[in-house]
Amino acid sequence: MTDKTSLAAGTFAGARARIQDNASRGLWSSRWVFFLAATGSAVGLGNIWKFPYVTGQNGGAFVLVYLACILLIGIPLLMTEVMIGRRGRANPDGAVARLAREAGASSRWRVVGWLGGLTGFLILSFYLVVAGWALAYVPATFSGGFAGVSGEASGELFGALLADPLRLVVCATLVLAATMLIVGFGVRGGLERSLRFLMPGLFVLMLVLVVYAAIEGEFAQALQFLFVPDFSALTAQSVLVALGHAFFTLSLGCGAMMVYGSYLPEGTSIAKTSILVALADTAVALLAGLAIFPLVFANGLEPGAGPGLIFVTLPIAFGQMPLGQIVGGLFFIMLVIAALTSAISLSEPSIAWLTERFRISRTKAVLGSGLVLWLLSLGSVFSFNHWADYQLFGKTFFDTLDYLTTNWLMPLGGLGTVLFTGWVLQKQVVSEAIGIRSNGLFLAWWNLLRYGTPVAIVLVFLNLMGLI
Ligand code: TRP
Description:
Elements (H helix, E strand, L loop, with lengths): L2 H23 L5 H12 L2 H14 L3 H27 L3 H11 L8 H32 L8 H12 L2 H20 L1 H31 L2 H9 L8 H14 L6 H6 L8 H29 L10 H12 L3 H35 L3 H21 L14 H28 L2 H8 L4 H26 L4
Helix pairs in contact: 2-9, 2-13, 2-15, 3-11, 3-13, 4-5, 4-11, 4-13, 4-17, 4-19, 5-6, 6-8, 6-14, 6-15, 6-16, 6-17, 7-14, 8-9, 8-15, 8-16, 9-13, 9-15, 10-13, 11-19, 13-14, 14-15, 15-16, 16-17, 17-19
Bound molecules: tryptophan.
């Protein structure tokens, strides 16, 4: 056989394998569903819980820097992940291995894939616990438990929740069960059906809350706080926080977007869809800011209160305002919904990996990983009570997982992904797969991917190691 025919045969076999994979794995039924799923993954605790508190801590110019990070690093990386998934048509580990093989590179690059799956799994184990706090606050708020509370009393109520392992375990378990039930039904059944109603519902609730905050809160002051940049408050550290948050909020560096991309039908523009997802994600974060800060200012609360911002300060606002019980209850329902659609995406890479690598049934994969996740989540739950004194380098189990995943594993996954795409895959293959028609735009993205993004991520690592 000449080189040419063997190449053609190889391509043919590849194409056939791909078609068979598609038939057995299932695809999103439309571009709109992919958009919903990816947006559902991106929008979560990161937007509603984390974005306001890091903005509150980092001051005025933070929002501007964060937007720049989304534009220059987040969107190019998002496009890359979706592209790898769609072209590889497998779980992140399998997709990267297949593309590496096609490019004649070492299949060791698959470490990018499975490390991502592992990272997502670890994030999920504590993400469930925070989502559980939100769930615990739903009945607490609806029942009027926060009526007229002072800052101190609200802090005590949050402290009482953290000190009650049983309540925490029950709530985290409910979130885990809901996630696994949805994921267990598979891509077509579970994810699509739930996302169709979860995402639009979330947007409606969000808008209601912003309108309420605009009428009842200090809207003008919130606008100024969010959008009038105050560069004097900007530090190197806050630039890095903005970059890390851009990763987290767009669900990057964990293979989540790769696995969603692997269910994307051919012919959809990856570039356009990714930009829409990033826009929707940013819109929700800004809406969350617009809903929360008017209430914070109207009640004389502290914007820089830290991770407890919504769980400690918002109930004070909800406890004071008219109809606060209902608005607050709706707010926490919304947070649980947002967390659930993200949790689904955090678990999907490892579930897809288990079913495809070890050929076990989806049900078994869900039950097995559900059990491991539940055990891991107990570690996070006990970090706030029984095990609060067991610390490694001054961090509890929960803090360690959070630190390890957000600061190390996610950027590492992102770095691996951009290096693999920009330096291992052939430019022409990437260009075909990504489908950016304009040559100028493609080159801008390609160069950002090869140089800009890796340099930015390495700067984060250097900063973490205390070298800059
Ligand atoms: N982006 C989600 C949020 O903002 C969290 C999330 C979902 C995530 N999937 C992810 C974070 C994958 C990192 C990687 O809450």
